[in-house]
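In line with agreed milestones, work has continued on tokenised descriptions of protein folds. One protein thus recorded appears below exactly as we store it:

>
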Amino acid sequence: MAESVASTAVENVTNQAMTYASPYLRYFFCYGEIVQDFTNQRNALKLRKQRVDTRVDKAKKQIEVIYEDVEDWLRRAEQELEESQNLQDETDRVKCFKWCPKWGWRYCLSKKLAEKTPIISKLLETSNFAQVGYSRSLQGIEFITSTGFMDSKSSKSALNQIMEAINAVNMIGLHGMPGVGKTTLAKEVGKHVREKKLFDKVVMCTMSQNPNIRTIQDKVAEMFGLNFQTNTEEGRAEELFRSMQRVNKILVIVDDLWEEFKLESIGIPYGDEHKGCKILLTTRHQQVCSKMRCQKEIQLGILSKNEAWVLFRDKAGLEDDSSTLNDVAKEVAGECKGLPLAIVTVAKALKGESLDGWRAANQRFKDSRHLDNEEVLGGVLRPLKLSYEYLKKGNNQMTGNDIQMCFLLCSLFPEDTEIPLELLIMCGIGVGLFPNASSIEDKRNEIGVALKKLQKSSLLLETDGAERIRMHDVVRDFAHWLTSIGENRFMIKDKLKEWPDMVESFECYTAIALWNCSIDIKNFPVKVEFSKLKTLFLQGDEWGDFLVVPSTFFEEMKVLQVLYLRYVRCLLKGFFSLPKLKTLWCEFCELENFSSSPTNMRSLEILALIWTEIDEISEELVKLSTLKYLRHSSVVGNIPPKLVSR
């Protein structure tokens, strides 16, 4: 008992002596404890850094911005782990020779470890980050990807003028003919100022002939990280207005403006309301620049002959030599009249052609004098028609016609609209495209291939999403020109407030698309003679009540194959007279007497009822032996089990 008490007393005295004595004694007598403490702290730092690295990697995959203190901590942790690695190696070597220790070596090492351990401990204490990053506001895909900008004399001059004007004025107008490259140049300006960090924010919105204010507001708000609290356009405009005022320097690119427009109706502040907000607008019409009171107006001209040839040669994949093929190609390039859109479209259409193919194309240009229409499309008609005709190249006559019809169907949709592929495909099936493909899936694949071919021919454009496509407005104008005469006659109207008062009847039309029809449309007919009509798109005003359509309106549509309805209320009694209807696609509609009507559409293959109110889906649908596609959501009643199994 006495010895135990004495031993404990000695140990306590020794510990107290080590505590209050010079730290140099601790380096001699507590070497093992110092090594263990260092090793534990270093291993803990290594594991902690792995966890933080994992969180940072996950945040980066979500496109988050990593906080600076997190980045700084990781750098310091990496540095400490690297510097302490030598100490760890030296410690391991001492362990190997502990039977013959070198006291001076151990003392120095113990001192280094004791000094390094608190630094590592401090890093561990400051590593508990609640968040490692934050979501950045979008920068605009237009200014990240390549814009295809060509450094021509005209575009370079316009770019320089714009860059000079941005520092001096608040509103700049860029005007020029369709397809000359205004949008491409505007994107290059946005990319240029973003790279040079001349503005805190750069945003681009497309107006078109009938701008969708809410869509534009959504895009601009997304760039500023704003979530709207109100639903009205006016309320959203005020929210956006206040949000943009809090950003010092902003460049807003307003693309494809057709007429005078009050930017404040969107929520864009400028002038005295925000002197740091600069506006660059593009338009086909110089008078729009004047009406918008642009302080600087810049015209973008066409390419010179040499510049046009350089662009054409590049897009057509031609070698830079004086071959006979190039001589013919130069003549074809000349027919594009220096218009970049036409040059790119025709060059891609002829890429890889033989000399005979180039000669045939050149001759078609020379023979197509009747296609000149400078007032309507500024000389783009002939090049676009050549590209359209080349859709049959490499396909049989029937397949080529189907691809062309895919192109024409796209022109039925409103300007600058992103066209849903599913709807387009089902309309294509309805009009009988690719009849040799039996199943829906086979037809879907065939139409998908046709749309890809159109994209590669620059007649259709890709969108950010894989489920939609888009048609350039100039190409759409060209398609409308094609369907103004000939076998396929189309009529497309938007914002219809009064039924067209036409001298001739509607007998000639095979496709009609009426978008955003006013609910109180004047002179809406009870019955119209549509003996050749195969496709009908009918949409009410998106933000108004339903467009009420009398059932008798459809009675004389004996050959109708595709009917697309949106925001429409209709009594389907008249559907008894649609024996050839293959596609019925309804969105946000009210259909009365639906349960009995479809049984009289014996050719129906596609039936889509999307957020559409009906009475019920009856067992009578089982009798539709041709039905292959059924899509429904939020409808009254249940799907009959026999219908699905059948």
Q: What stands out?
A: The radius of gyration is 36 Å. DSSP finds 21 helices and 20 strands in the chain.
